[in-house]
Amino acid sequence: MTVTLDDIRAAAERIRGHVVETPLVRDEVLSARLGQPVWLKCEYRQTTGAFKLRGATNAILSLAPAALARGVVTASTGNHGRALAHAARALDVPATVCLSRLVPENKVQAIRDLGAAVRITGASQDEAMQEVARAVAQEGMTEIPPFDHQAVVAGQGTIGLEIGTPEAVLVPLSGGGLAAGIAVAVKALSPGTRVIGLTMENGAAMAASLAAGHPVEVAETASLADSLGGGIGLQNRVTFPLCRALLDEVVLLTEAEIAQGIRHLGRAGHVVEGAASVGAAALLAGKVVPQGPTVIILSGANIDPALHARIMAEAA
After folding, report:
1. Helix, coil or strand: residue 208
2. Residue 286: left if φ>0, alpha if ψ -120 to 50, beta else—which one?
3. CATH number for region 5-50+149-313
4. Is domain 72-140 in CATH 3.40.50.1100, yes or no?
5. Count of CB atoms situated within 10 Å of the CB of 32
6. What does the domain layout of the chain look like in residue ranges?
7. Half-sphere exposure (CA, 13 Å, Cβ side) for 167?
8. Is 200:258 a contact under the CB 8 Å cutoff?
9. Residue 283 and residue 240: Cα distance in Å, rounded?
10. What pTM did the predictor assign?
């Protein structure tokens, strides 16, 4: 199973009017420091505060009425659940979101506020996904996975149609839906553009799977980049093959580096979660060296305000 540029263009037509075409703004500090133009794709300004609304909306609009009538269910580290809840409410479709205990309370409450039923189970996304499988098998719900799904990947890939043809794109890497979708679009339009996946050092399932050559399980740990946690599924059919084929590099970041990225972006007026800061973090740490115009995907804004305040108060 794969995703094509035509799929992404069709998704862009399908979700038009349901999502925001977010701005691309120049990071003047990083551009001056690194000697190359650095642009920020502000997906955190999406309606639900994260890019996930694109994929969830495309997926739910692709379902048949009978599937919608049974209700939709997903597992999430927070942002996909919020996006699916929003899209489902707009279509008056029942939605259930399964979460692990590691998901921050602010994200859990945001999902409840959108009218979705929330089920908290276990200490990993893998355990939350087991609850999804049970809901599908025993309750007849229709699953919309957070990443390993063609319509979800195509929806995320619409971002790649909006960023031009830079020398490099720095993409947060978790289950691979965002990275795979953007890579499909960007590589089709600009084969020479580097697409670099960025994630945390500990508990990064896609990074470990790419290194192993096949999907593997990892132990989840708490991270400032909590949205990048969770497994990719041992039976992954879409995002692992695409990431393996299309990503030019994967970069791992420490918690201190992620915090530095949050602080840098916060000082520039971009209040984002840890997952969204990894591109800036990689440039600041010298782990990615720009060779031309570079785009950073600021994936989400859903950070606990008290946590953001503590990070901003720390010494740079």
Report:
1. helix
2. left
3. 3.40.50.1100
4. yes
5. 11
6. 5-50+149-313, 72-140
7. 10
8. yes
9. 25
10. 0.94
Catalytic residues: 52, 299
Q: Look at the chain and count its residues.
A: 316
Domains 5-50+149-313 and 72-140 share a fold: yes
Q: How many C-beta atoms lie closer than 10 Å to residue 75's C-beta? A: 30
pLDDT tens digits along 67-78: 999 999 999 988
| Sequence letter at residue 239 | T
Q: What is the DSSP letter of 195?
A: E
For residue 126, name the pLDDT band (cuts at 50, 70, 90): confident
DSSP for 56-110, please give it: HHHHHHTS-HHHHHT-EEEEESSHHHHHHHHHHHHTT--EEEEE-TTS-HHHHHH
- The stretch 277-302 carries a mean pLDDT of 97
**Which whole-number Å values give the CA distances from 98 to 84, 129, 215, 279, in the listed order?**
12, 7, 22, 28
Q: In the numeric block, which tokens belong to residue 273? A: 């979660």
Contact 301, 47 (CB under 8 A): no
The pLDDT tens digits for 129-174 are: 899 999 999 999 999 999 999 999 999 999 999 999 999 999 999 9
